[in-house]
Amino acid sequence: MIDLQQKVMQNIILYASQQSQMTDIILWVVLVATIIALGVLVYLQQRIGKSLKFEIKQLNKIKKNNVEYEFVLKTMRLATWHIDPVTMEIVFDNDFRDKHDTYAPSGGETTSNLGEAMSEQDRQKMNQVIKDLYDGVIDEAHLEYQILLPHSPKKYYWSESYAIVAERDIDGKPKRIVGTSMRIDERKELEEALVEARNRAEESDRLKTAFLANMSHEIRTPLNAIIGFTSVIPDVQDPEERKTLLDLINENTQKLLRIIDDVVNISKVEAGKEELDLSSFDLNMLIEETLSLYQPKAKEGVSLVTAMRNESQIIMTDRSRLTEILRALLSNAVKFTSNGQVTIGYEQPADGRITIFVKDTGKGIAEEHQKRIFEKFYKVDEYIPGAGLGLSLCHTLAYSLGGSVTVESQLGKGSVFRLDIPMQ
Q1: Half-sphere exposure of 58 (CA within 13 A, CB side)
Q2: For residue 160, what are the contacts with CB-CB under 8 A and spacing of at least 6?
Q3: CA torsion, points 120, 121, 122, 128, in degrees to nearest 10?
Q4: N or C: which end of the chain has fewer CB within 10 A?
């Protein structure tokens, strides 16, 4: 019995010893596993932290690139868009153009809608470009066109677009077409101004050449008369005939001086070498004096009259320059009026300014010439005597007096020239 109890006790102790060893092993395994798990966890946290830092850095870089991208678009006033080649739908991704009266579909609109806002010629060009992009004929395109302003049906604005196929499918068909657009009204206006300036420069050069030829003729004509009449005076004994010849010499001398004076006066005024000589005087008296100079030169059947608003009209300006303008206007009116009358006068002063007019019933001026008759060297009729400087001189002198000279005319019905200047 005692032996049995001893054996039982030994077995219990052995079992407990085995269980203790097993527990120790399990604890060690758990401990090692925990340490390994913690290590893996720390490693994963480090990897995740590095990944997050990298992603944050990339996001910041993308954000910075987007800011720079938008800044470039804003600076250049560009719009970016894309076209779905299947639906031909246009979507504007960004638009930094001038918003006033600018075509910019927000989505759902197609290239055909855009074409409706174009002229027929531009619409055909746009359709051809899109077709070439779709067919693979070209990969990128550039187009300038006009778009009808939404609130002004008869007015267009200029636009310039660049397009490129961003991606093609396996068959070579475009999956996405992207592009940019910008308004180029200012550039087009500058281009038109440059073309106009070039044309005017070429025309000015032509007119200068014609002017030199005309001046040669205009100077030679009175000069030949002066030389010719002077050479025969010694052989003329009759006093009346000698007086006639002297009068002719004097008349041609005045013509010659007049031509030279016109050229010199324009040059001096434009160069700013002559200052205004302001003085007060009666405009009525100046008009009467100037008119009397041209009474003898008027053709038979033409009367010269005045139209004064007041019995006396005192103004302050450069008398000499005003006289030059009135002489030039009256000279033209008398030259081109064959019947009827020439009227010189002024309107009632207002707001410190006065308008002097010279009205005639002559041949008139065609509308296409009215904008250019104040240019130097320009003559409406090359066969009419004169150097073509009179009206140019009027324009230059009027500007120097702080005023302007304009014309209203109908072909065959006469002309009205108006000089508007300050009274003091």
Answers
A1: 6
A2: 142, 143, 144, 181, 182, 183, 184
A3: 100
A4: N
Q: 94: which strand partners? A: 80
Token pair of 144 as six digits: 């300038």
Q: What does each C-alpha distance from 214 to 196, 252, 388 come to in angstroms? A: 26, 17, 9
Residue matched to tokens 């590095």: 50
Q: Are strands 79-84 and 89-95 parallel, antiparallel or unpaired?
A: antiparallel
Lookup result for tokens 């009227």: 343
Q: How many residues does the chain have?
A: 424
- Per-residue pLDDT of 278-302, as tens digits, reads 899 999 999 999 998 888 888 888 8
Count of CB atoms situated within 10 Å of the CB of 317: 22
Give the integer Cα–Cα distance in Å for 415 and 294.
Answer: 18
Provide CATH code, domain 210-274. Answer: 1.10.287.130
* DSSP string for residues in 283-338: HHHHHHHHHHHHTTTSPTTEEEEEE-SSS--EEEEEHHHHHHHHHHHHHHHHHT-S
What's the CATH number for 77-183? 3.30.450.20
Please state, in angstroms and rounded to a whole number, the distance separating the CA atoms of residues 355 and 302: 24
Fold of the domain built from segment(s) 275-424: Heat Shock Protein 90 (3.30.565)
Which residues pair with residue 356 across a beta bridge? Answer: 346, 419
User: pLDDT (tens digit, 9 = 90+) per residue, 344-383?
Assistant: 999 998 889 999 999 998 888 888 777 777 776 566 665 4
Residue 167 pairs in a beta bridge with 176
> Quick check: 257 and 251 in contact, CB under 8 A?
no
Percent of the chain beyond pLDDT 70?
73
Tokens of 262: 């016109």
The span from the CA of 36 to the CA of 212, in Å, is 106
